[in-house]
Design goal:
Layout (H helix, E strand, L loop, with lengths): L2 E5 L4 E7 L6 E8 L4 H11 L4 E6 L9 H17 L3 E5 L3 H11 L4 H26 L4
Parallel strand pairs: 1-4, 4-5
Antiparallel strand pairs: 1-2, 2-3
Helix pairs in contact: 1-2, 3-4
Length: 139
């Protein structure tokens, strides 16, 4: 089962894609969050034969939801309506920090890290979900 991972942001949306077996996440692209972006995502789900979408839910460090989590849930609901695919959310705390750390350790400069951060974060979100599902009872 192929899954699409999303790191939702007000200006950019990072996307990642699992391999066909649903075991490994890889970076896909970054889209500008503008009118029509949901149709772009819908087209990507069709072309890659995606069966499920996973969106990172930005929770506060204490686990509570704020304004951004509410926006993300609204985006997830609309994306489900447009694509007809199941959409799940997963806690994304620290994924952006982790993405920047990984890229910094890989020697990428600040400009390159900034350009890649959203799709790397989307990859971490999706990989976290895949591992959770693999380790779930019956998974």
């Amino acid at each position: 089962m192929r899954l699409l991972g999303i790191d939702y942001g007000r200006s950019r949306i990072g996307l990642s894609l699992s391999d066909p077996t649903g075991s490994l996440a890889q970076p896909l692209t970054v889209l500008k969050n503008r009118p029509g972006v949901m149709e772009e995502i819908k087209e990507l789900t069709r072309s890659y034969q995606v069966e499920k979408i996973v969106i990172g839910l930005p929770l506060h460090m204490n686990g509570e939801e704020g304004k951004m989590a509410e926006e993300t849930r609204t985006f997830a609901f609309k994306l489900h309506e447009i694509t007809g695919l199941p959409v799940e959310t997963i806690d994304e705390r620290l994924t952006s920090w982790e993405a920047h750390t990984i890229m910094k350790e890989a020697g990428l400069n600040r400009k390159k890290r900034s350009r890649l951060a959203d799709k790397v974060a989307a990859t971490l979100i999706l990989q976290r979900y895949l591992e959770r599902e693999k380790n779930a009872p019956g998974g």
